[in-house]
Batch of 3 targets.
Target 1
Amino acid sequence: MGHYHDNPAAIRALLRSDAVHRDVYLDPEIFALEMQRLWARTWIYVGHASQVPNIGDYYATTLGAEPVVMVRQEDGRVRVLRNRCAHKGAKLVNTPAGNLGRFFRCPYHAWSYHLDGSIAAIPKRDGYTHTRFNETKAAAGMAAVHTAGHRGFIFARLSDDGPTFDGYFGAALSSIDYMVDRSPVGKLQVAGGVLRYLHDSNWKMFVENLNDTMHPMAAHASSAGTAKQLWAGKPADAPKPMAIEQLVPFAESYDFFEKMGVRVLPNGHSWTGVNFSIHSSYAAVPEYEQAMIAAYGEERAKDILGTVRHNTVYYPSLTVKGAIQTIRVVRPLAPDRTLIESFSFRPVGAPDVFLRRNVTYNRLINSPLSVVGHDDQHCYRLMQEGLAACGNEWVSLHRDFHEDELGQRDQTVGGTSEIAMRNQFRAWSMFMTQGAEKERR
Amino acid sequence: MTDADIARFLYREARLLDERRWDEWFALFSEDGLYWVPLARGQTDRETHTSLACEDRLLLRLRIERLKRGPPSQQPPSFCQHVLQVPEIAATPDGWRTHMPFCYAEVRGDAMLWLIGTAEHDLVRVDDAPRIRLKRINLLNCDAALPSIQLFI
């Protein structure tokens, strides 16, 4: 046992109302506890239902430290199971996606399982007749985890303890609604491949950065600023390449990001771009707008298309860009190692230009070869290394802190406030310490 | 132009990258030139399927100008080395198509990244010299989780 395991007070002491201790990013014990508590007792994004359209289709991933598999059931529902043979623990699927037919089958001793995880067959099963096997958890087969979804977005909760799905996300689910409703038929499909970018930094640095609006004009001056220069002097009516349309707004002013606004909700969720965002000025597609009005009526269509939130954080595992239908999925690997997987979607029933836009954005921003991503990732690594410096063990989250934000459940403030990060850590502290108290009971 | 001339062109192209002579490298591309690193094996669609990189002259110019500015992520700067295999060369109606396995190393500070793959060039004859219409880089691990790759492969 380390310093923090049995000591919720020590964990609580890592967070002040306006600062956080460096151990949250550096300490291996804290990382292990995050996986056991925060990442087990909250709702973690698994995948999208369109990745498993047919019975027996599966998608395998990890939640926190655990291998899981999302699988389409015989009855059409989606379940998430622990990807582990009940016998000796081998992973049952070892490719990211595929179709199982009607059964999981372990390659080692040929134990097989129905799609719901229950045991279908064990070779020479009579060998277990006079044993206690049937009294163990293994007899139930592959263990299911709590699964819930919202409009095709499938989440799981590994622990039996924890909030309900709707109680956990609350009003934050509206960002998924706005994203899905950009399809005239209200349907998204994962499309265009997944970019997998390995970061040598703590997962929270990435999640915090998604609502950090004070960095683009600094960290991205070299990419967005250069894009702006390259396009300067072009006639106003020159057709603007998607790349210019998408990259240049990263160089917007402090005032722009301040006026964008940020809204924070309980349990660490938040979004920037309450009023508008860097995605607000993409070229209009009149035929699509007509289709949207036909599908939703003028008022609702206007609301959907006028809602262009910047990043919504579904704490701790998912960030969503509704206006451009891309998501980034956070997979922590170690205190200083994080995999970010970025997916794009096809808004069903919308012209192809939207998928092209989403795919282009994903490549420009989220690829391991991205000129934007390089500078973000570099800054995270600088923090990961710089925090080893002693003398000041605290990370400042003071920007626009006011005492009266404490205890409020739903707040919208100026976009450059660091309130979203403070809000994340308040949820972090709650789940990390509630966990400790439950374990001790 | 002989096959030996085409091979020399490819060797020089890689050498310009290794020596960070990006403007001279850029000049090797035709007006419609494209630098493409697919995300999927055998990928044919670069419009509705994303790529690790897919850059026309505008985006290549952006990447080059950014590197010249010394952005945050280039402190310290990266250096690269291509190790090339003798290319296979086939004639096309207006030029050549080549297939060239490579090793590529990129270093930055104490860290070194290794990539292995094949480069496929579509070369077009412009003013009696080869120009790159497409440089396609098929990474052996194109679908793997990758760290930052900052220079041109």
Target 2
Amino acid sequence: MAGVNLLSDQGYRIDGRKPNELRRIQCKLGVFKQADGSAYIEQGNTKVLATVYGPHEIRGSRAKLLLDRVLVNCQYSMATFSTGERKRRPRGDRKSQEMTMHLKQTFDAAIMTNLYPRSQIDIFVEVLQSDGGNYCASVNAATLALIDAGIPMKDFVCACSASFVNDNPIADINYLEESSGGPELIVATLPKSDQIVFLEQNSRLHEDNLSKVIDLAVKSCKDVYTVLDQTVRDHVSELSNSHGWDH
Amino acid sequence: MVDIRVVGARDRQKQEFTEEISNLVCPGDVITTDTGFMRGHGTYMEDEKLHASVAGVVERVNKLICVKPLKTRYNGEVGDVVIGRIIEVGQKRWKVDTRSKLDSILMLSSVNLPGGELRRRSEEDEKMMRNYLKEGDLISAEVQSVFSDGALSLHTRSLKYGKLAQGTIIQVSPSLIKRRKTHFHTLPCGATIILGNNGSVWISATMNEETEQTGGYEQDLEPVSKGDREVIARLRNCVIALSEHQMMLYDTSVLYSYEESLRFNVKDILKPEIMTEIIENTQPRLESLGT
């Protein structure tokens, strides 16, 4: 986008962050009582709620039943008021369908699906406010909700986006940076084993720069992991203290 | 008068006594690199290392290592008392929703039909199944066996189990139900409480002797007196208060919190500050018992 300088001469981005700096992450586990697991996350101005139900008996069409593993069912939806312009369809449009599919693939890889044959896990993700990095915030929220539900996973799944501006890779891009037409790389990783479970790129990026951008995105995922891990630890300690279990 | 609270206000004060527990793990954490241990629930083996797959506290029994998550769906065990709802009538069986990972099954052969234990089950009975239990009915039952995929098989072959008539049901986390010798309690305040291991709690007015012996097939649908309803409502609110504060549910804890709540109006028990007060008064009494 001409006119907007995404990275100033002093090396700061439009919202005042350094190139490798993440937006502030705030999260909370167990926000709903009725659901088996739930979480709320804010990454800068992107706000996402995730709820998990299950594992439970397959409801609806029995044709989806899998004999050897659990069926992971996702639903991604964006609140009508989440974007600058009011959205007509909160879910079911092409973009949401694609996002739903990506979330399903990501969590199929992380959940230990073989433990619960013939059952189903529902993951519902609702974007309340969208300021770029919707997929990343959704994945992070869903991870926390799954942990809250006590569903066995190989590892946390942490996602982060990255871009490339003026020969500099930048991490965790916001809406303005996302819509400026530059390249966008979205990565979801299992941070402890350094495995990438999901990678998507929009727009063009020169091959020589790709590794730099991926490295930064993967490193940012680890930073996200540090925050999520601490939240989970605080949450579990707090709850088990009030349980009065002996340690 | 309407009483409206802001949702986020209560969580602030909880932060004070949060301290990290030593053997706490999160998914993906390495528990041990020693290969001499056995892999239990909540763990998995990768690269010769034992990892946690859920967030919780590590428990070790001899060579077996488990991680127990704080909150999870109900995991049935043989002998558990559960409360469930009939969702389907099928061939010689009922499907029961027990809030478990899979629907539970109640076979026609494992229920007590009206008219004595030694009655033969004929084809007639198969056709009459919906007359005994139909979709939407609540039952109390015991877990008879667990299938290989984790589904439960229930039985009601005792007169204390069977269809539930009039009362109120509360859903709490299964981990809050303390395992006791008996889960059926007739409380001195004039109500009967069933603490299902699956986290369902049933409260009803205490019935007189003769109706109790029918296994619940003849439902007593007479209006419950106002006094009984008030006792039930108070008990319900006390159970909710206990579960909000993550206190174990068993006969003594329910009874003590009930006694502590008598100073308040029934509906006021649900107010957060009164809830806290009741729990704070109940806790020392339970601790002095040494339970």
Target 3
Amino acid sequence: MTRFLLRRFMWFAITLFTVVTISFFLMRSVRGGPFDTDRALNEAVRINIEARYHLDWPLWKQYAHYVGPFNLDRHGPEFLGGDGSDLFGGVLTGDFGPSFRYRDYTVNDIIAQSLPISALLGTVAMMWALALGITTGMLSALRRGSGLDISLRLAATGGIALPNFVIAGFLVILFVFLVPLFPVAGWGSLRHMLLPGFALGAPFAAYISRLTRTGMLETLSQDHIRTAWAKGLTPRLVIMRHALKGGILPVVSYLGPATAGILTGSLVIEKIFYIPGTGSHFVNSALNRDYTLSMGVTILFTVLVYSLNLVVDLAYTLLDPRIKLEDE
Amino acid sequence: MLASRAPSRLRQALPYLLLALVLAGVMTLTRGARLQRADLVINNGTEVTTLDPATVTGVPEGRVIKSIFEGLCSKHPATLAPVPGMAQSWQISPDGLTYTFSIRRGARWSNADPVTAHDFVYSWERFLNPETAAEYAYQLWYVKGARAYTTTADEEGRPALSFDTVGIRAPDDHTLVVELEAPTPFFMDLMAFYPLFPVNRRNIESAKSEHPDSWRLEWLRPENIVTNGPFRVVERRVNDRIRLERNPDYWDADNVALSSIDVLAVEQTVTALNMYLTGGVDVLYTVPASVIPRLLPREDFTPGPYLGTYYYKVNVTRPPMNDVRVRRALALTIDRTAICQKITKSGQIPSWTWVPPNIPGYEGAAMEHAATLAENVKEAKRLLVEAGFGPDGQDFPTIEILYNTSEAHRDIAEVIASSWRNNLGIDAKLLNQEWKVYLDVQHNLGFDVCRAAWIGDYVDPNTFADMFVTGGENNNTGWGSPRYDELIAAAAVELDPARRMATLRAAEEILMEEMPILPIYTYVTQNLLNPRLGGFLPNIQDEHFPKYWYWKSDEELNAERAAHPDRGQLVDAPGPAAGLYSPAAQRAGAAR
Amino acid sequence: MRANNERWDLAGRDMEALLAEAAALQGESLWQDARRRLRRNRTAWWSLLFLLAFGLLSLCAPLLPIPSPVALDLQTEPMPPIAPWTEFGNHNYTREYWELSAIDSAAVDLRAAIFDDWQTGSWMGRDSKGRDILSRIVWGSRTSIIVALIATLCSLAIGVTYGAFSGLSGGRIDNLMMRIVDVLYSVPFIFVVIFLITIVNEYRTELEDNWGIGRETVFYLVIGAIYWLTMARVVRGQVLSLKNSEFIEAARVLGASTRRILFVHLVPNVLSIVIVYLTLTIPAVMLFEAFLSFLGLGIEPPKVSWGLLAVDGTEAINPLRIFWWLVVFPAAAMGSVLLALNILGDGLRDALDPKLRGKD
């Protein structure tokens, strides 16, 4: 177990380093800079701004300054030519730097403000997805080939068949204007969360439904279920205790990627429903050439995906005793 | 390896445990997120870059900064003429070079410090300081020595010159003396321009001492920021809202009616419109083009003239656009009427001039054109033949229209491409680039024809005219004319207003003969606002001042509707949650 | 790493039954069996037919007597649909398209020769620029289908090669290769897309002149390059489990050559899962195209794609007036095709799953 976690951690560090390095240089090689606006800067002013944000440094130095742990500007350690007043900085010290676009905030501030909102939205979406997906998947597996199965699968597939901005649009028309149940946009109360949560969760509900169905069909045809039926257990017990557990396994392994997908997929939903989450920063920061924020969310995303996958793997072993963690 | 031996009870309880955890999380997080709607909600269109007046440039930032800070002057809400703000009065020397302001006694910061002339010296020093890296620093370079101060920095980026070399002095707390390099006719307008608004020294200094490495952000946090305007900041959340509340320390607080304002940053225009229609927002500054025909008959949508031109830049360094006849042919055949009536739809005016109309005292110089498109096409074909091409675009290479990603720009580009194809047989391809790449390509002249727009910074033709001086930062066409440069330079030092306008017109005539740009239409404002909101006056810069805003009572609203039955179809005018009040009621309240 | 070969775990069954089953399967190849089973799954079969019909329709777009998808006829407001029984067609056809390939423009010539200037009425309404929605959907389907096909094939090529190599190599190489995939999984693809699209724009003239590659081709390849990761994982997992499975072992014991094992046993079994995955990737790519269009990074007008139509349609959703035809018809087209693809994918999975072979 310890060895497993250590190995995982090692790969995590390598992954993170690669991601940071690649995206840093990728980001800088794209045309346009954070301070380009439709009103061109005066040349002298541009020089001042670049100096203030260290954009005039050679790229390797900006990279080293960004990664840390030493501060390379004039307040850095003395052996690097600074005055020693502010020794440390950079990602390694947990400091993602100031945002270039939202200049009154550090990247840490922005993530701290927006991540709980995205997490909340994601949770609501995930709960929608799980509740709908597992129920429909289970029902259609049990009534395989029936009209119910077909219609449920049609509905579930519908969730994957339309872009979520279209689904969101339909939802707004239905539940805001025709039947005024929910506010049209914004963030604050549970009422604000249900509609975007549903729109965000719909495609994942569809996937989960399919996974559950397939998983359950597979389990239902297995020997231990047959044995359970043979032993005369009640259908409820067979289904809830044995079949569902087997059916849910693929869903669990899907949760990692799904959560990651919900985090990024929320970009469109956040725009349409005006939700101040992290998703919108994902694309906007790249479009704005907000180097630090963009790197910050990239790192955040990498960490999240990685740790979610780890959690999923651990949960998997708890749910299915036959599966062992890799240890050689 | 742990897994296979994990107790089965734990295994069974796990899902429920997780569920409970998640639910608890949801409960805690929802409780923290609640915020009641403010008295008035406006949509600013995007999140502000910063609240530091010295480093902002954009219109959305300006809207917030004008509400929380006040400069030497402020603007009259309708005429936009400078009116006394922090300066109670001012004197201009006969040669137009020395301005003496007397600072209002009784003006206070929100931390109760008095506003003094020294605050302006401090703020402008900071504004011009190369370390601040103010994007608009050049707006104050009309002051003696200011340009040199900003542009001379040592290796560390600190100013190499002493601020004593700059012509800004405060002989006492209430007198500010500014010396200019040359007479600048619009200098008083600049005094009401938000980048020149003052900041509180104590605010910044204490942030500097408490947070030596992050003071640049710390002094701006809602709990720290000190302001001198009609409102103060109480809460901020990125991409959500800025909550403003009336500033009781403001010198004219008795005349400020609104008690709180939410400034939102909704970028999707459809979402913003939906929020307006369901009462979540009271003021929108833009609306989606697709619904304009439905909005036009309503009383809450009243487009008005706006000081801006939508135009196409032509790269005059690339053949065949290096031929003025080709540029004229392209300009003549754009179906401007179709664009204004069918695409932009809210009464934009087809434009043949560079400087938009409605600037007092200025008569624009239009390019030569006939009244109908058909005649223009005939002339354009003649020009094409003269330039060595066939009348139906024979031998004419395919050209590319560059625009930035946006539906509105795409639509217009499609119409223009089809205008050129149908009228001249010229093939034009569309090239859409995201914003930053678009700017970069434009700056490096990597385009054939490129969409652009310019909104005037101040009500004067110069804000348009000085763009196209040779090598100007915003020129981006490769075009230049010594004669044009001379005229612009001459206008800058001309003190007689009539002669100055005539000089600027002569410059525009050159521009409209040479056509490095193809004007398309003049902008209109597109404000959609709750009819109950009073004090929101139309003007050509689309500048609005929350200081003067108030909620109309039913009587006032009805009287107004009765007086102007032609305003359009009546719509709901919801009042604020906290009740109605107007400045008069406010004053009465204050008197009690 | 998860042990994912339990689905192949035949231990516990007696050899007798296994041999009997094998004998029963003799003479019916995997594919014949799959086709039979697919036909029995009526929804999947209908989906396949629907998709083929749609593909044909979209292939024949230049031959159909529909209006031009790009000719502008500016209106202040979009025109609602006209029922075919009110106006079946009119004589207003203008020949206006983007740059078409030689075959397509020949087809358009043929269309003009057959139908002259007659065209169908606007049965699905027009957008605010007077362009026929039906025509835009049909022409847009070409773009979307091509994006999906090329991107999927691209992901297939990279993914299968990578996954198969990784799975066959095993050991350290396999481990390393899969870790690289993990790393790439965590790279936010949106950068890659923005980055590559930017680069392509910068060099597009050179690309077109020297290589004959349009911006769109690169766009497809970029999407494909993102989707290969899952494919690589799936293929590698399949190869790995097959490599150690009993029937391969059995074949080996029976003295089959490596080549025979590879082509007779491995490839068909990998192929089946690849095909299933393909039918699921195509919808994902189409949705991704729509997502890019939403961000303004997608196909460029005057060309049209379903993503673009869907984005335009969402503009129409507001309570002042719902131009429902702008959103309903494109959504229906997109929805039905993706739905069919998904159903077909499910059906294929059921049909090709060796475990279910010969059953039900």
